[in-house]
Write a structure and sequence with these properties.
338 residues
Length: 338
């Protein structure tokens, strides 16, 4: 027969309290376990994120360094570009100045060339008296202005025409020809025979040949006869006897004659008519007095000097002032107009 044991209310309360405590500890354990899992997961996530942040920080620092290097390179390239830009600007300024210089009008270039040619021609005319060269220069300028066919050049062309007519009206003076003829006479002075030059007669050679063919006795007789003839010499003088010159004096005579002819050429270049003719007169007198008048070279030199003495070397040369003034006045008007 089974016996039923019934718990008292007090026991029931204790049992329920025990169950509640057990349930509370179980719930507390589960909460602790769950919190620990969550904390571990959070720590792992935090560590992962810290590692990711560190990696990204390293990459950011690397990118920052690369950016700094790129900035430095860009700054260096920018400085180079600025220098090149400055050089380009300088070149542009120089090119612009050159372009402005090259874009001058044809009239300005023509006037500059005309003024330069006229200035050189005037200087050469006054210094060397080259009328022919000056006339050619003026004709060249007039032809150049005529090809341009500009009405504003008409006053200048008129002034050039008047200067050309003045030059054409001058008597012809062949400066180069007279200088060459004087040089020819100067070059022949050393070969001009003096009046007392001892020259072996032409038949002396023939006598010598006959002596060589006649033998020893004939040669001795001829030499003796020659010595006897040399002791006495008869000379017919149709004019006053010229002075006898020693060899040293003859050398100085020839040199002084050359200097006198050179002075005549200088007087011709200086347009000194009186000095030119006086030098030639003295040179002719010396040749007549000291040199053999019967010798053909002396006669030719005398004829040359006589012809040269008739040349007119004193010419009043123009100064081309009218043409130069016309060019300068035209330039001044053009500058004022600009």
């Amino acid at each position: 027969m089974e016996e039923t044991i019934q718990a008292t209310p007090r026991q029931q309360r204790r049992f329920a309290a025990a169950l509640a405590v057990v349930a509370a500890f179980g719930a507390l354990g589960w909460v602790w376990y769950d919190a620990r899992d969550r904390i571990g997961a959070t720590q792992e996530e935090l560590a992962r994120r810290l590692r990711s942040i560190e990696t990204e920080s390293r990459e950011a620092r690397l990118l920052a360094r690369q950016a700094q290097e790129a900035v430095r390179d860009s700054q260096a390239k920018l400085a180079i570009l600025e220098n090149r830009v400055g050089e380009s600007q300088n070149q542009m300024v120089a090119l612009e100045a050159l372009y402005q210089e090259l874009t001058r009008s044809r009239d300005e270039w023509a006037l500059a060339e005309v003024e330069q040619v006229l200035t050189l021609a005037a200087q050469q005319l006054q210094l060397s008296g080259n009328v022919r060269g000056t006339l050619l220069a003026l004709q060249l300028v007039e032809t150049r202005l005529g090809r341009s066919d500009r009405p504003q050049f008409i006053p200048l062309r008129k002034a050039l025409a008047r200067d050309i007519e003045r030059l054409r009206a001058l008597p012809a003076l062949d400066v180069s020809g007279i200088s060459l003829r004087l040089d020819g006479v100067i070059a022949s002075v050393d070969s001009l025979p003096l009046a007392f030059d001892e020259r072996a007669p032409a038949d002396a050679a023939r006598d010598g040949a006959r002596i060589e063919d006649g033998g020893t006795l004939a040669r001795l007789g001829a030499e003796l006869w020659g010595e006897l003839k040399s002791l006495v010499r008869i000379r017919t003088m149709d004019a006053p006897e010229p002075p006898l010159l020693a060899p040293a004096h003859a050398y100085f005579l020839r040199e002084n004659l050359k200097l006198r002819l050179l002075n005549a050429r200088l007087s011709m270049l200086a347009r000194d008519q009186a000095g030119y003719r006086e030098d030639l007169r003295i040179a002719q007198a010396w040749i007549t007095r000291y040199f053999d008048a019967r010798a053909k070279p002396n006669a030719n030199a005398q004829a040359q000097l006589k012809q040269l003495a008739q040349a007119v070397v004193s010419i009043e040369l123009p100064v081309l002032a009218e043409s130069l003034e016309a060019v300068r006045a035209f330039n001044m008007r053009r500058e004022r107009g600009n």
